[in-house]
Hints:
49% of the residues lie in helices and 13% in strands. The protein is built from 17 helices and 15 strands. Strands 11-10-9-13-14-15 form a six-stranded mixed β-sheet, sandwiched between helices. It has a four-stranded mixed β-sheet with strand order 1-3-4-2. Strands 6-8-7 form a three-stranded antiparallel β-sheet. It is elongated and about 105 Å long.
Amino acid sequence: xxxxxxxxxxxxxxxADAVFLGPDLPPTLAARRRTDDALWLPVSAELTxxxxxxxxxxxxxxxxxxxxxSGAKANFIMPTATVEVARSAFGTVDPATLRPSRPNDRYxxxxxxxxxxxxxxxxxxxxxxxxxxxxxxxxxVIDAADLLDEARIEAAHLRxxxxxxxxLRAAVTTIxxxxxxxxxxxxxxxxxxxxxxxxxxxxxxxxxxxxxxxIREAVQAILGAHTLSQLEEIWRRVLVLADDDVAGILxxxxxxxxxxxxxxxxxxxxxxxxxxxxxxxxxxxxxSEAPGDTAAERLAAAISEAGARINANVxxxxxxxxxxxxxxxxxxxxxxxARIEAAxxxxxTHEGKRGTSRRSPVTGTRPPTAAERGAAAALxxxxxxxxxxxxxxxxxxxxxxxxxxxxxGVMARDAQRAAGAMPTAKPxxxxxxxxxxxxxxxxxxxxxxxxxxxxxxxxxxxxxxILTRAVTAADSASKTATVAFGDTVTAITRPGxxxxxxxxxxxxxxxxxxxxxxxxxDLKLGLSRPGAARLLVVVSDGVFRTDQTKAGxxxxxxxxxxxxxxxxxxLGTARATRDIGGIRFLTLTDPTSxxxxxxxxxxxxxxxxx
Length: 610
């Protein structure tokens, strides 16, 4: 098309060296250019992947090139279904980091991706080129029709993909503004061009009224209110034309030339002019200002002001969205890392054997004493007898709404009717969340094996075994898991397993990875997810590094906010009363003789958290 970024015909093929390297480049520069091309090849591949759903075409090829064949930031070559995007459109972004196939990455270079979206709109909605209509209309009419088609294809694109508005807005100053400054701004025709390229995009849903207000005032001062109103009616008719309505767009182009005053007769014909604007000086026939120096300066200033407004608004929008997208991406990465870490922690346990690593806190196992077995049994009985209530999800099926319709159920019901049987299939599924008595327990136990716990390793091991055994015995549906945290996090028991022996520890670690331990238990047991009575038991003196104390307080608060109870067993150490997050503390001197206290504290914590 006649616009600078759409090529109507396939260019003449040139040797590869001439196109990409230049025929006379020195070897050093040629090698550097080849290196650059290698960096941009993956980007071109990802842009090709990204453009397919945008243009709703699977035959488009996108190339990130040093310069497009048209010289614009982006270019659509219709016969070869090729889109070119200038590498300079990506600014200073390192091409090695570009991942345009990922939606979150596109906000780093909105103008470049917006240019791609604009060319995708051409690929989806442009169905003609000037060469196709040569002879059906005068060149000035074809140029005007081509000009009006720019806003039309974006309006059509937004009707199908409204979420692409931001990208089209980001491309405006990259694609449109060079065309505004390309041929001067001292004529009525140039003012009309600004109206078609900028003001029409407001009605297309791309730009906002406040952004284009300066240009509208300047254009109206040159063309007059009546002429601008007529042009507005023309482009609004164009915005709703079908893609294949070539006759309609040419008719609009002719009306545009007639309204602006462009001579549509061939140059040199009787009564024909130069193909520019109606003659006259001073003031135009409709009372507007003649396009003199003052009007030109006003229009130039308006174009500059509007461009600055659009850029500022787009930058603000993309910054907010980019920050949110970046935060979401980082959260997803952290969650994935946490899942991998939890999987590693529970990939093997040390139940029943001595730790093989020098850093392992496990020294072996021993049979539980009679006092420990009795304490576990008493605690299990207390947990079974407790009247704990929590919301649980129950899935039910029904013959009638409300609920989610399952097509399998519908087909089964129709088949039963067809066979002459009484329909029994229930096609609707509903998830009901209600409070239930004695829901299953999810108990995570984290024991501290740092060097500050050396004097209490025996009662520490005993308390962990009693709790684990009691929860498992209380209810077959209940699950518990135990980890020891020091320099690393070591899984002692997995969910669903009841330890037969007491695992003994050594407290030799120099630090405490408390938050990693809690995160692993949360991911494995779902401590932050409703649907069960949840309890986190920490056995520690609370003497942590400053960063672990701060992060642990935040982590525990997040758990309690979801309804998970937290019980902290301090085992009577001097510094055990240190505040880690305002959770329930219990000081014990001998866990085997304090089963009732543990049970009472656990039940109180569960009751308070419901």
